[in-house]
Design goal:
The protein has 112 residues and is α+β, with helices and mostly antiparallel strands. The chain is 23% helix and 33% strand. Strands 1-4-3-2-5 form a five-stranded antiparallel β-sheet, covered by helices on one side. 18% of the residues are buried.
């Protein structure tokens, strides 16, 4: 899910453990706040907009155009530029493992 970032305050760039409310149900997720440096530069030298991308865990549905709520819980790592897509995907898999550990231990995902 890509979130609009106009006129809002955001945490520092990086990857976070989050949860997402969609259609009345909470889903565990990870969110990246940043400038997509692997594909578009580091954000410092450009006029690129800040982006927030949220990946819901164990989820496969079309959310396009729907409103969601994202709650941030824990900072996993800073944003960085990777050598390519494969390196980025490998790190995302590691981030998901860490997010699952955090969510399981804190029990922040619920149906309420």
């Amino acid at each position: 899910a890509n979130l609009a970032t106009e006129n809002r305050k955001y945490p520092k760039a990086g990857v976070y453990v989050t949860r997402c409310l969609w259609h009345g149900k909470w889903h565990g997720s990870i969110s990246n706040v940043g400038y997509n440096p692997t594909f578009k530069g580091d954000g410092a030298d450009t006029e690129l907009p800040l982006k927030i991308e949220t990946h819901l865990l164990d989820f496969d549905a079309d959310m396009y155009g729907d409103e969601i709520v994202v709650e941030f819980f824990s900072f996993l790592r800073g944003e960085r530029k990777f050598s390519g897509v494969d390196a980025l995907l490998a790190q995302i898999r590691l981030d998901i493992v860490e997010a699952r550990k955090y969510l399981a231990s804190s029990k922040v995902v619920s149906s309420s």
